[in-house]
Design goal:
Blueprint lengths: L2 E8 L2 E8 L4 H8 L18 E4 L2 E4 L12 E3 L12 H8 L9 H14 L5 H7 L11 H13 L5
Parallel strand pairs: 1-5
Antiparallel strand pairs: 1-2, 3-4, 3-5
Helix pairs in contact: 2-5
Length: about 160
């Protein structure tokens, strides 16, 4: 099996690599770029732990091949922060105890980032619907919903 040249802008940095045709984007990010916030769990696209932004839209990195992301802009959790400073979504998760084990958190944060970019002031029902594609085994989701509401406030939205 031959390798393929890809160029992907990851968290604002252009990366050119030669990759096998069947290398998933999740494995590329974790193994080649050491961006380990992209978690692998179900590897069937169901749980959302591997969620990243590809050209500003959420995507399951376990289902997307790296060659499919060629010439794309990919954002991982590491790309949402500025140095050591937490962004508003991470601050809200911290303040509202929106995580327990934290395994699902990166996928939730990226899902929420896309949600709030599209709708900066969602209702509680819209938040719940928007989080429907991510699974958490620890929190019961109440604190995650509260964290999204807090993030809306921190970003300057809300009533």
């Amino acid at each position: 099996m031959s390798d393929h040249a890809v160029t992907i802008r990851v968290n604002g940095v252009e990366r050119s690599e030669s990759v096998p045709a069947r290398l998933t984007l999740a494995d590329f990010l974790r193994e080649r770029l050491d961006l380990t916030a992209t978690h692998l769990a179900c590897e069937h696209g169901v749980c959302g732990a591997c969620t990243v932004l590809v050209d500003g839209e959420t995507a399951r990195a376990c289902l997307l091949l790296t060659v499919q992301a060629d010439r794309s802009e990919v954002t991982t959790l590491e790309g949402l922060t500025e140095g050591d400073k937490l962004g508003p979504i991470e601050q809200a998760f911290w303040a509202k105890h929106g995580m327990q084990c934290g395994f699902c958190t990166p996928g939730f944060v990226l899902t929420i980032a896309e949600m709030l970019d599209e709708n900066p002031n969602p209702t509680r029902e819209e938040i719940i619907e928007g989080l429907g594609g991510n699974l958490c085994r620890c929190t019961g989701y109440v604190k995650i919903v509260e964290a999204v509401e807090e993030a809306v406030s921190l970003r300057g939205g809300g009533a």
